[in-house]
Fold this sequence. Notes:
4-stranded antiparallel β-sheet; two-stranded antiparallel ribbon; 6 strands
Amino acid sequence: MEDNFYVGDIFHSKKRNSKIEKAVLYSKDKVVYIDLLNEKEYTTDTNENDYVIEDSLIPTDTNDFKEDYNYLLYRYSNGMVKSKKKHWYNFNRK
Length: 94
């Protein structure tokens, strides 16, 4: 597997407050970046509410954590992402 992991800043835009968080991201094509821990996708398009700051991306060596990140990538790629639990009040009543 290619080492396409980056450390970068993600800008979150809210109505009243905005914040920047640092995350480890994965990308095959340098267009869509995946935060494997939170299972979210980001782009560098500044018109989005949440986006990756392109200038902040630093290629990183993940050899120490390769097994962990490979597992997260495998889990994400095979659709094994977390699903929201249904509560009793969300079920359709017949």
